[in-house]
Write a structure and sequence with these properties.
The complex is a heterodimer of chains A (about 270) and B (about 200).
Chain A lengths: L5 H8 L5 H12 L2 H19 L5 H13 L1 H46 L14 H4 L16 E3 L12 E7 L12 E3 L4 E9 L9 E7 L4 E6 L1 E2 L5 E8 L6 E9 L2 E11 L2
Parallel strand pairs in A: 2-4, 3-10
Antiparallel strand pairs in A: 1-2, 4-8, 5-6, 5-9, 7-8, 9-10
Chain B lengths: L12 H11 L3 H21 L5 H17 L7 H18 L1 H13 L10 H12 L2 H10 L4 H15 L3 H24 L11
Helix pairs in contact in B: 1-2, 1-3, 2-3, 2-4, 3-4, 6-9
Classes of the chains: A alpha+beta (about 270), B mainly alpha (about 200).
């Protein structure tokens, strides 16, 4: 076969190409360094897609099989995941600067105008007593660790007038570069209102507001709000995320202290 | 030229010279072709799931050289090399030490990060900083996006840099290899990356 299509190269590195075609491809790349480079590039792209949670089910299954058998591939996947994180963080920093600098200038101008007309003596609008309230978010309630992601009913007097509340407690370990490559999976049964995430790690006494943001692995913002510091061992914080925000898909949660990222967590929400 | 020990595995210098002569018309081109073939063999064994790809690749080259020395008629070297590699792979699987190698490699693979372990992220940042500015920009840009957007981004990058897509791909791959090697070194030395500027 000549002119190997990308799909065939990708199937090959996943072990999904038929034996006859695989043999033909191998003979071809044994004599063609450029083709070998293309196959390697296909593997790089595959790992990047896996790091972004964009593999189709069949591909994911095939890759999981390979990851279980080839430790160095796991290390490469973690490197791809870290690389994607850094790429995206840098991209976002540039984008945020592009938006925030004109906004900051506009805000400064507005404040100057307000000050000029003598409206500046008014009390600020933000009179919320707690950081949680300032962010306009429910205050999360820490729950005991739960290894099995089973909904925990939360009978509180204040809930009586509200629709039935199902709370799902789930523990997550920080993910950076190392790991098993397996993404924690969470299934939200119907009726789940809140997902309480217990975030492993250590805040190390760092001062500042503890907050969490959830986004898809493609970088779309899903939710952000306050987190509560934890006193439990090896648990940095807990955070309650409205279940309605978590459609099936892969997510990245970033825990920040004083606005600085502290830990990151990957998780996957499965269809209920 | 290939850095091989001709005495290893009974391979004679004559056999190695014979293989090189078959691979290229002069010393320089033969050496480059030898390295290309070895890279292909290592990749083959990796993709086929061998636990010691480098060892298997060298064993395949040794056998290929010996077969040529024995006077075997080889019309198509890549096809022949692939055939030899397949036999080496089958033997590799049958060897009892293949299983031991698998276990030891699994045991040596990185453990999940401790909750307060920031070293991996620090390593990545440091390894990126160890790249030259244009290399760092290239690798961060090259691995952005997915699907069609990724293809278009890379085409645009190649145009902007005045390179063919293949040349850009090779450059990105070399950078990625170096970055991964740096990460492995850094993590293995407690978070201290090699302090070498590289492009």
């Amino acid at each position: 076969m000549t002119g190997w299509p990308e799909a065939a190269l990708r199937a090959y590195v996943l072990g999904l190409l038929g034996e006859e075609e695989a043999e033909a491809l191998e003979i071809a790349y044994f004599g063609d360094p450029d083709l070998l480079a293309r196959v390697r590039a296909a593997e790089d792209d595959l790992l990047d897609d896996a790091a972004s949670g964009r593999l189709e089910a069949g591909e994911q299954q095939a890759l999981d099989g390979r990851l279980a058998a080839v430790p160095r591939l796991r290390a490469r996947l973690e490197a791809a995941r870290a690389l994607r994180l850094v790429s995206r963080e840098r991209g976002r920093t540039v984008a945020v600067r592009r938006v925030l600098v004109p906004l900051a200038l506009a805000a400064a101008l507005l404040l100057a105008v307000i000050g000029f007309f003598g409206w500046g003596g008014k009390k600020g609008l933000d009179a919320s007593p707690t950081p949680e309230a300032r962010l306009g978010l429910p205050s999360p309630t820490p729950v005991p660790p739960s290894a099995s992601a089973v909904p925990v009913p939360s009978p509180r007097a204040s809930d009586v007038a509200r629709p039935p509340v199902g709370r799902l407690a789930f523990a997550l370990a920080p993910t950076l570069l190392r790991g098993t490559g397996r993404t924690p999976e969470l299934r939200l049964p119907p009726g789940t209102a809140e997902v309480v995430l217990q975030l492993g790690g250590d805040l190390g006494g760092a001062p500042g507001l503890v907050a969490a943001s959830v986004e898809t692995v493609e970088g779309a913002a899903i939710w952000r709000g306050a987190a509560r510091r934890s006193t439990a061992p090896a648990t940095a914080a807990t955070v309650a995320v409205p279940a309605e925000r978590l459609a099936p898909g892969d997510y990245l949660l970033t825990l920040t202290v004083g606005g600085e990222p502290r830990h990151r967590y990957f998780f996957r929400v499965l269809p209920s | 030229m290939p850095q091989r020990d001709p005495s290893r595995g009974g391979l004679t210098s004559t056999a190695l010279a014979g293989l090189l002569a078959r691979l290229g018309p002069d010393e320089e081109r033969a050496g480059a072709a030898y390295e290309d073939l070895r890279r292909a063999l290592v990749a083959f064994f990796e993709w086929r799931g061998a636990f010691t790809p480098e060892e298997c690749a060298d064993e395949s080259l040794d056998r290929l050289a010996r077969r040529l020395e024995d006077g075997e008629e080889v019309r198509d070297v890549p096809r022949f090399a692939r055939g030899v590699a397949r036999l080496v792979l089958l033997e590799h699987w049958r060897r009892p030490d293949a299983r031991r190698a698998e276990l030891s490699e699994r045991m040596a693979s990185p453990a999940p990060a401790a909750p307060d372990d920031e070293a991996p992220h620090l390593c990545l940042e440091r390894c990126l900083r160890a790249l030259a500015d244009d290399g760092r920009r290239l690798i961060l840009d090259y691995y952005q996006e997915t699907g069609r957007a990724r293809i278009e981004r890379r085409q645009a990058m190649a145009r902007a840099m005045g390179l063919s897509e293949a040349a850009l791909r090779n450059r990105a791959q070399r950078l990625r290899d170096r970055l991964e090697a740096c990460l492995a070194d850094c993590l293995g030395s407690g978070g201290v990356p090699p302090d070498t500027k590289t492009r």
